[in-house]
Each structure stands twice: as C-alpha cells, then as structure tokens.
Amino acid sequence: MNRVVDPDHTSPPAAIDYEMIFQHAPVGMCVSTDRVIQSCNGALAEMFGYAKGRLQGQSFSVLYPTMDEFLRTGDRIVPIMNAKGRYSDERIMRRANGELFWCHVTGRALDPAQPLGAGVWTFEDVSEKRPVSAELTPREREIAALLVEGKTSKIIARETGLSPRTVEMHRASLMRKFSASTSSELVHKLVGAR
To answer: Where in this chain does the record put each HTH luxR-type domain (predicted)?
Structure first.
C-alpha cells in the first residue's frame, strides 16, 4: 500500500541548540566586544591553559605575548575589517603558563561599522605543524607572521609603519635565527615545513 504524503504538512524542524554547538565546537571560539571576551567555549580556555570561565571579561591582551603586540595587531585589524568585514591570520600567541605557540585566528564583526566592536572569533592551535623554535622579539614575531602570509618587505613596511630597511633588518635577523639562507627557506622553516 502506497502512503500519500501531504505536501503542505511538514514536520517542524528540530530545535537547534546553538549554545551546545558553541560549547562543543572543535576549535576555540569566543564572542567579544571592544576586544574583551564576553563568552568563550571550553576549547578556547583549554587551548590557552585557562580554567573554564576564567577568560570571560578578560581583554584579548592576556592571549598575546606582549601588550605592544596586542595593540599593533588591533591597529592592523581595523583597515582589513573595514574593507572585508572579516579578518584572518596566523600569529604567535601566549598560553597562561607563558608558552608561545602559533595560532590561526579568524574573526568577523557583527556590525561592519565597528570592526573591533562586537564580534565572533575562532582560534586554532597550529603549533603541532608549526612549533615556535627560536627566541624571537615581539617585532620579529610580527614580521614572521606577515612573511608566512606571503607578504613582501615593502607591504610589511606599509602595514607595520616601519621603513622597508627596518623590515629587511628583522628579516635578516630571522634568517640567522632559523639558519635560513634564502627568504623561501625562512618561510618554510617558519611554517614548520621540513
């Protein structure tokens, strides 16, 4: 016997529990306002070595190696968010115990007119494939992150407000620290390629 299905009668969709999805996401996630964490999931707290709930109400600055890096990253994010409405990069971050690690960060502003206002951010620990293997200065960490993105010294100079010569000096220092003889080899070593 064939069953006739009434096309106008559909079952109501199952309710989606967005809070459960947020809390159990496989990557670190948070909601922020003016670079202050309003809520984060367990994956983010665990990644950075904090007890669950400890990051709520904290400035993103606690996740950066230095306050200067936090401020410079904020300055770099604004024009990109204004142009694209989202931001993504890989940078060196700091765990609660002081350990530095590479992290892929992606964010989107909830109101495009306020790029650092309310936003949703994800964090993915990429340290397994890209270990922090040399003692770097804050500027070297910043330059390294921009080199990994494939940016030239000229573009890095423009984005950081440094002179191209200063960027080249930092690149040369990175090449020495990573025993790289070419810029291409340096980038391979920065991304953890063997």
So the answer is: 129-194
